[in-house]
Design brief:
This protein is α/β, with parallel strands linked by helices. It is built from 9 helices and 15 strands. Strand 5, helix 4 and strand 6 form a beta-alpha-beta unit. It comes from Arthrobacter hankyongi.
């Protein structure tokens, strides 16, 4: 690899081991550390955080204070779990050192910073991935496969609800960039189509400079309409995605990784006044049996496999990961929602710059 030695000096036939570093030891960082330690083909060799190690994540590993110190440990890959405002600085340093990087979502604090990260990784043939973990939720992975197989026929709408109490750890972005980016990414991914336009309304109830509640609608390039309710103001936690199509609806609960199919019923009528109404009625309801691996583990395995496929040179292999370019597109949609709420109008994505 470009920075470390994890893929060098191995005996013939032995699987390469990627030397991994982690920067950012907050709530999400400690989970990354746990999964890195459990992922085959990866060795966590050092962790870093300028503010220390509040959760005792380092254990026997070196606890470093900066990305530069982390790079000097000779790492092949890194996970960047620092606050969003530091993603650009840390990500660019890792790219300059030739380190494949998984950066937590959103890709950066703004689209211009995100575009610089995309350029830095793509120009060096590095794997740059963004941690939109909902793509790896078993319920949504199964749902995407079923939609691609045509189980619903034509899809009409994707609606999401993502609500819960305010997390004190989030200080540098609002609910759209922090939580709403999950729903933006998963909607475009499920439909296999980018957003064409968005409209949004927000509130500021927490005494902060950033929004804490959003109600947003959108339309994808393929005509599917979307609806998103996201807030930090609800006493209950909810993570639900509903996809409605011509044959029924799927409901995915990503807190429990449950996927339920609501089928359209068939009801005949001889009542002339309603016979011409071509609506639907309730049919069978089936909670589908699916395997439920941990999403974060699946995400790390996909990142590992992409790095090994890339081989440290040439175009980065990003199959299976959320590429930085996809992460940038998601951030552009989030910023379009913020603009829509501020100006009280529908925003066309074609009218929004790419951040470059």
């Amino acid at each position: 690899m470009a920075a470390g030695s994890g893929q060098q000096g191995k005996a013939a036939g032995q699987a390469p081991v990627l030397r991994a570093g982690l920067i950012g030891l907050g709530m999400m960082g400690r989970h990354h550390a746990r999964v890195l330690r459990e992922t085959s083909g990866v060795e966590l060799v050092a962790v870093a955080d300028a503010y220390g190690d509040p959760h005792g994540t380092a254990g026997a590993l070196p606890l470093l204070g900066s990305v530069e110190e982390l790079i000097r440990e000779g790492i092949d890959v890194a996970v960047c779990a620092v606050p969003t405002g530091l993603h650009e600085e840390v990500g660019l340093a890792l790219a300059e050192a030739g380190v494949h990087t998984l950066v937590e979502k959103p890709i950066a604090a703004n689209a211009a910073a995100g575009a610089r990260l995309v350029e830095a990784y793509e120009s060096r043939g590095l794997v740059g991935a963004v941690g939109h973990i909902e793509r790896y939720n078993p319920a949504l992975q199964s749902l995407r496969a079923r939609l691609a197989a045509g189980d619903l026929g034509r899809v009409y709408q994707i609606a999401t609800r993502r609500q819960g109490p305010f997390p004190a750890r989030i200080a540098d972005v609002g609910v759209i960039k922090d939580l709403g980016t999950h729903d933006i990414d998963l909607s475009a991914w499920l439909a296999q189509s980018p957003f064409a336009s968005v409209g949004a309304r927000t509130t500021f109830q927490s005494g902060r400079e950033h929004e804490d509640m959003v109600a947003a609608t959108g339309q994808l390039a393929n005509g599917i309409i979307t609806s998103h309710l996201v807030n930090w103001l609800s006493p209950m936690k909810e993570r639900v995605t509903v996809v409605t199509g011509e044959r029924g609806a799927f409901v995915a609960d990503t807190l429990t990784a449950d996927l339920t199919l609501y089928e359209n019923g068939t009801v005949s009528t001889e009542w002339d006044s309603v016979a011409n109404f071509r609506g639907v009625s309730e049919g069978n309801v089936t909670r589908l049996a699916i395997a439920k691996p941990e999403p974060l583990r699946t995400e790390h395995e996909a990142f590992r496999d992409a790095v090994l496929a890339a081989g440290g040179h040439g175009p980065a292999a990003t199959a299976g990961v959320v590429s930085m370019r996809e992460g940038l597109q998601t951030l552009r949609v989030a910023e379009a929602m913020i603009l829509s709420a501020r100006e009280g109008r529908t925003v066309q994505l074609d009218d929004v710059g790419d951040g470059s």
